[in-house]
């Protein structure tokens, strides 16, 4: 590192005094296309990357430590802050893991399951729209950014109508959902779903055959299937490398085993293939939600599982029945005590496999909670993926990995 | 007055009340033979390696092995048993109980659609072999494990802290590490920028913007024990006449004056 003094000018980002002809560039953590707080230390030979070292931890808040000091219900709002683009998928992954730990996953009422699945898919659409917007902006397509954000805003309005928040939803509880859908919400959702396919066609019309888009995405960031498996890639990073694996299909949770949808897979292994997958997944999400809307009407109005040992009774019971009130008091002040044991529960979040490993010692606080966030490994793969690419492609590759720093650093 | 005893090796939050006769239920450990695929895998594994324990819990296989075998067992799982992905790798801190860490490797088989967890127990100062040659995803996970628990990993290509700064003192996810950070964490910026000797010069009130000095009557007032500004903190409290303690905080609810907006609810 260059020593600072008044006689020699100090360049914060560049190091020139190396023996060979390579230059070290500090990319981030405040670079606009670093998608948050990614710092990449790049060694460049001309414009070609020779070595890349991702540096993370700028957003580390110690969520796993916080979890060990919170009761289970208390931790749920913290999960919003992981993948803040699609918060409900984190809430759900955590709630589902605790439900499996308690052994009550089959007790969740059907209406709650329908609402959860709708919200999960709506969040997938929001996340994919956001991905396309920022990725296109990174590559240089400003108008796509504006179009995507407009649609995303409509979807966020729907989320806001349901739970009152735009980003930090906390829309799922352990054992169900806190609220029923408001009146007229499903009609608004249908309107949104009817408009979206035309919008997706618009994005594809702008990008698919766009010369600049293709030149910058095709054959950039090629991840061979072996590398994808070895690095623990999941979600679209895995399916973009020609491996057909979607947890919604392979280990179905919620209502995914009753729903008819396809898993798009691409053999191209490059950024363009992954872009096509994102577009197709949005269409599949629309298809899923359309099947769920009629299902909602056939369900009973119960929203939370009836497991008095672990989950508070309904508000009506708490207000009228003494024992429910006492149990509610215990569950709020002391917290539920799951059985001794451990679970690892994977779910398919928009970014990939989001898993929660929970070790319980029979106390109200989890003994250990490990969050398996997909973006962590999708950032790690950059150190093998970037060498050989040009500096301009680095931005494309970071964009196409769809990383979110809230869940990398946790 | 005696300070309450707090065990130093586990300073995490504890339940303030537990029933004397309460026994925590256990998630049952099912026999491996209940699942055909896992039974075959364990059979194959037993023929090659000595395993300590193997059972099923909530549909996933859990195998305890000797820590010295971790690389060979994982290679066997990948190449012979087709568990081709390492999804997660971390540790659990049992130092306060048995002086050991439990390291776990969460594996996924795409072709069999099965998940297995391989575990080994290591002592506090015992190092473990890196599984990076078999699974590249272990590269970052092992760094994170070292960063959070201080578990050393042998033959790792780039063994450094990953989330915390390189000069951080202590390992945050250990049970002995307090939630709000230890002394080194509280003074981290001061130590780094000015040096340790500046701790006294800077003082806790500058370091922590929310710090309130109870003896400082110049800048802070104590509720219920107001003394004149600048007076010694233990001097006689002032009488404040303007404060009326009898004023009701909540007005009495009058049903006649109120209006019910939504009669259906």
Quick overview:
The complex is a heterodimer of chains A (410) and B (265). Chain A is an alpha+beta fold. Chain A has helices at 63-68, 72-79, 87-102, 110-139, 142-163, 185-207, 211-217, 225-230, 236-239, 247-250, 271-297, 315-320, 322-333, 374-380, 382-385, 391-401, 405-409, and strands at 14-15, 23-27, 39-45, 48-55, 341-349, 352-360, 368-372.
Give the arrangement of secondary structure elements.
The complex is a heterodimer of chains A (410) and B (265).
Chain A: E1 14-15, E2 23-27, E3 39-45, E4 48-55, H1 63-68, H2 72-79, H3 87-102, H4 110-139, H5 142-163, H6 185-207, H7 211-217, H8 225-230, H9 236-239, H10 247-250, H11 271-297, H12 315-320, H13 322-333, E5 341-349, E6 352-360, E7 368-372, H14 374-380, H15 382-385, H16 391-401, H17 405-409
Chain B: H1 36-48, E1 51-57, E2 60-65, H2 70-79, E3 85-94, H3 95-98, E4 100-109, E5 114-123, E6 128-129, H4 138-149, E7 153-154, H5 183-186, H6 188-193, H7 199-207
Parallel strand pairs in B: 2-5, 6-7
Antiparallel strand pairs in B: 1-2, 3-4, 4-5
């Amino acid at each position: 590192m260059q020593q600072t003094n008044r006689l020699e000018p100090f360049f914060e980002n560049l190091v020139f005094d190396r023996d060979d002809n390579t230059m070290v560039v500090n990319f981030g953590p405040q670079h606009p296309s670093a998608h948050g707080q990614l710092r990449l230390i790049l060694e460049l030979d001309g414009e070609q990357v020779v070595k890349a070292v991702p540096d993370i931890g700028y957003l580390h808040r110690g969520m796993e430590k916080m979890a060990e000091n919170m009761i289970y219900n208390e931790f749920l709002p913290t999960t919003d802050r992981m993948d803040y683009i699609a918060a409900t998928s984190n809430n759900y992954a955590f709630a589902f893991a605790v439900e499996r730990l308690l052994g009550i996953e089959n007790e969740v009422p059907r209406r709650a399951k329908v609402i959860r699945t709708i919200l999960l898919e709506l969040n997938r659409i929001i996340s994919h729209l956001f991905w396309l917007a920022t990725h296109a902006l990174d590559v240089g397509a400003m108008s796509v950014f504006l179009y995507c954000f407009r649609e995303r805003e409509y979807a966020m309005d729907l989320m806001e109508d349901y739970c009152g928040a735009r980003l930090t939803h906390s829309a799922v509880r352990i054992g169900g959902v806190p609220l029923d859908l408001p009146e007229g919400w499903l009609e608004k959702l249908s309107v949104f779903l009817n408009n979206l396919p035309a919008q997706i066609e618009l994005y594809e019309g702008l990008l698919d055959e766009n010369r600049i888009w293709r030149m910058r995405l095709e054959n950039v960031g090629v991840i061979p299937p072996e590398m994808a498996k070895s690095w623990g890639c999941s979600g679209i990073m895995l399916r973009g490398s020609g491996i057909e694996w979607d947890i919604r299909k392979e280990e179905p949770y919620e209502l995914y085993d009753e729903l008819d949808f396809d898993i798009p897979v691409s053999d191209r292994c490059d950024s363009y293939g992954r872009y096509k997958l994102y577009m197709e997944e949005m269409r599949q999400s629309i298809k899923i939600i359309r099947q769920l809307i009629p299902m909602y009407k056939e369900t009973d109005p119960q929203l939370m599982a009836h497991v008095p040992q672990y989950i508070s009774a309904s508000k009506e019971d708490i207000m009228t029945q003494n024992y429910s009130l006492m149990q509610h008091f215990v569950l709020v002040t002391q917290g539920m005590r799951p059985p001794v044991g451990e679970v690892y529960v994977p779910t398919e979040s928009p970014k990939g496999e989001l898993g929660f490993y929970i070790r319980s010692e029979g106390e109200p606080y989890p003994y250990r909670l490990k969050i398996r966030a997909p973006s962590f490994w999708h950032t790690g793969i950059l150190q093998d993926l970037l060498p050989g690419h040009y500096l301009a492609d680095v931005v494309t590759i970071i964009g196409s990995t769809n990383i979110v720093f809230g869940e990398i650093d946790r | 007055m005696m300070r309450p005893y707090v065990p130093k090796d586990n300073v995490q939050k504890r339940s303030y009340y537990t029933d004397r006769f309460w026994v925590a239920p256990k998630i049952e450990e099912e026999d491996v033979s209940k699942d055909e695929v896992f039974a075959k895998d364990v059979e194959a594994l037993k023929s090659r390696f000595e395993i300590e324990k193997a059972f099923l819990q909530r549909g996933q296989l859990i195998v305890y092995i000797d820590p010295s075998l971790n690389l060979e067992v994982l290679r066997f799982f990948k190449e012979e048993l087709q568990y081709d992905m390492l999804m997660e790798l971390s540790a659990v801190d049992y130092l306060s109980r048995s002086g050991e860490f439990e390291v776990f490797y969460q594996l996924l088989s795409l072709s069999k659609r099965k998940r297995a967890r391989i575990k080994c127990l290591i002592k506090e100062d015992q190092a473990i072999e890196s599984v990076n040659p078999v699974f590249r995803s272990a590269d970052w996970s092992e760094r994170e494990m070292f960063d959070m628990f201080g578990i050393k990993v042998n033959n790792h290509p780039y063994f450094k802290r990953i989330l915390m700064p390189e000069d951080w003192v202590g390992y945050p996810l250990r049970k002995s590490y307090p939630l709000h950070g230890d002394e080194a964490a509280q003074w981290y910026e001061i130590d780094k920028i000015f040096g340790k000797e500046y701790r006294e010069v800077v003082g806790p009130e500058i370091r922590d913007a929310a710090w309130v000095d109870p003896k400082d009557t110049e800048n802070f007032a104590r509720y219920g024990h107001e003394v004149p500004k600048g007076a010694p903190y233990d001097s006689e409290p002032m009488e404040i006449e303007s404060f009326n303690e009898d004023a009701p905080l909540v007005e009495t609810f009058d049903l006649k004056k109120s209006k019910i907006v939504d009669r259906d609810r």
